[in-house]
Amino acid sequence: RRSVRRIASKYLAAVQEAARIMMRIRNTKGHSAFVIEVSMDETDTPQTPDELFVILSALAHEAVGVDTIAPKFTGRFNKGVDYVGDLEQFEREFEADIEAIRLAVKRYGFPPHLKLSVHSGSDKFSLYPVIRRVLARTGAGVHLKTAGTTWLEELIGLAEAGGEGLALAKEIYAEALEHLEELCAPYAAVIDIDPARLPAASDVAGWDSQRFVAALRHDPACPDFNPDLRQLLHVGYKIAAKMGERYLRLVRACEETVSRNVTLNLFERHIRPLWLD
After folding, report:
1. The 3-state secondary structure of the chain, one letter per residue
2. pTM for this one?
3. Which residue, 93, 149, 182, 220, is most buried by CB atoms nearer than 10 A?
4. For residue 42, what pLDDT is reported?
5. How many CB atoms lie within 10 A of CB 196?
6. Domain that holds residue 160
């Protein structure tokens, strides 16, 4: 009972806020027009399976019919780079979380498709065999959030195309470097960037397509790969968003290289190792 009170004191206010947000969306969109995900992945500390179960019980009490839930797992889930942590511990924790969800579905009437969501889940190549083993043992599903890696592959496609695409990629990096602290502050729990390892914008301005792509593409075997640059550009998506139509026009103009990189990355490096191989 003391443990439940401790967990409730930590998470109940957030659960109640999630319920208020859900009701506002539901009142606007109706009951069946959206999927509900509750995420806690950018908290300071990971949730244990016991905490996950108590959070789910609180969500049930607040009538939040959650479809996916994204806890913070142990280890580092930094943006755009591989997992750092104990793979065996993660495997035990991931399976225990699935069992907590199954118990919550049975006890509180959540939809049977309720599943774990892995945020900052892209590029965690060392984890995919682990997750696949657990899914095979349990028959559970999983939601893998990959929006960030797709944005980076768009940027790789622009740089690979050369010309205006490469120039825009360099411009985005230069502006991201200039606004380093501002861009990184909201993501402090999920990035590890050493400013000393970030190349100067003036150096990047002299790179050709091959050099820029090598620095950005997630290939630890490549001597030019720079995980600090990759993480910075991952959180630098706001710069491209502010460019609006200018950015979108170049993505369309470079469709061949953008599409090839996005498709290869999602299918071969994410979907295949998790569900097909």
Report:
1. CHHHHHHHHHHHHHHHHHHHHHHHHHHHHCCCCCCCEEECCCCCCCCCHHHHHHHHHHHHHCCCCCCEEECCCCCECCCCCCCECCHHHHHHHHHHHHHHHHHHHHHHCCCCCCEEEECCCCCCCCCHHHHHHHHHHHCCCEEECCHHHHHHHHHHHHHHHCHHHHHHHHHHHHHHHHCHHHHHHHHHHHCCCCHHHCCCHHHHCCCCHHHHHHHHCCCCCCCCCCHHHHHHHHHCHHHHHHHCHHHHHHHHHCHHHHHHHHHHHHHHHHHHHHHHC
2. 0.90
3. 149
4. 82
5. 6
6. 149-269
Residue 129 and residue 155 in one domain = no
Lookup: tokens for 208: 């050709």
Q: What is residue 46's predicted lDDT score, i.e. its pLDDT?
A: 94
For residue 221 the two structure tokens come to: 């075997």
What order of strands is seen across the sheet that includes strand 68-70? 37-39, 68-70, 115-118, 142-144
Asked if residue 31 has pLDDT above 80, the reply is no
pLDDT tens string 152-179? 999 999 999 999 999 999 999 999 999 9
| Per-residue exposure over 238-265, b if at least 16 CB sit within 10 Å of its own CB, e if not | ebbeebeeebeebbeebeebbeebbeeb
Residue 94 and residue 27 share a domain: yes
CA neighbours within 13 Å on the CB side: how many for 64?
Answer: 27
Task: State yes or no: pLDDT of 211 exceeds 80.
Answer: yes
> Residue 1 has what pLDDT?
73
